[in-house]
Structures are given as structure tokens and as C-alpha cells.
């Protein structure tokens, strides 16, 4: 039990960038939902939302790059990995 607890709480290196706006946090949730549901149309809606947020200056280039990488994984049909990656993106925000 102690070993399992240590693994969960052991500090891991960050993979994804720290988000710079509340909109980015919302986008992470939207991306996770689309990936978890294997929802190609949801990915389309997500990409439009990212484009809008980028245009408004609410998403950094690092965030945008991370989003594109996860979307590419989903579009390649690897929904489970995309779901894990989007969850890790969210998790990395908590472990700042």
C-alpha cells in the first residue's frame, strides 16, 4: 500500500506546459471529453475552439503545440493514448 501511494504522489517530470488562461483549462477538459468518447466531431469542434482562443491570444504557442499533438494522436485512431495524454495534460496543471 505504501509503495502504491508513493507511486501516485511521487513527483514526476512535467510533460505538458503550464496553461496561461482559464480558457486553456476549459480546452483541456473539452479535449479529454472528445478523446474519451472517441468523438471525431468533438475533435473538430475542439480545433475550432482552439483556433478562436489562439486568435484572441488566450492560448500560448506551447499550449497550441501540445493540443495539436494530442489531436494528431486521436486522428490517427489511437483514442486511448489521446485520452491518457489529455488527462496527463490536465494532471500536469495540478502538479505545478
Brief digest:
This protein is an all-alpha fold and 96 residues long.
Explain how this protein is built.
The chain has 96 residues and is mainly α. The chain has one domain (25-94). It contains 5 helices and no strands. α3 (40-55) packs antiparallel against α4. It is globular and about 30 Å long.
Strand content: under 5%
Class by helix and strand content?
Answer: mainly alpha
Q: Largest sheet, described in full?
A: none
Quaternary state of this entry equals single chain
Rg on CA atoms, Å: 14 Å
Strands, helices and their partners?
Blueprint: H1 2-9, H2 22-36, H3 40-55, H4 61-75, H5 79-94
Helix pairs in contact: 2-3, 2-4, 2-5, 3-4, 4-5
Keywords:
96 residues; 5 helices
